[in-house]
Structure prediction request, 135 residues.
Amino acid sequence: MNRFATFLLLFITCVVLSAKSPQSVITFENTVVKLGTFPESRPIVSSEFVFKNTGDAPLVIHQAIASCGCTTAMFTEKPIQPGESGKVSVTYNGTGRYPGFFKKIITIRSNAKNGLVRLYIEGNMQASSSNNDKK
Prediction:
């Protein structure tokens, strides 16, 4: 019985301490950015996702992983203090890709309570007129 009481007290202490420990929360203004329509002759387009640390501990982004090699992501690397903002800059490079609609995923991994967040870019690369003449 004494072991059980000790274990129960230890368990309750751990639960209470973990519940009160400060945690960061990453909150994005938007998780989808529409890049619109752009010509194949200018296949590189960029945009930014702005986020805020709405938690009560510093936020650190560990990774920003794009779903394919045509998309790159750069992010604020310094710790974001509670109440401060940061950004994830995303570039799509359609060079050598087929024209048309695309939707790409960027997965953000951080120390936040919501540690994995998916961001989306979508757009439509129009074929150049020289490609249409070849058809």
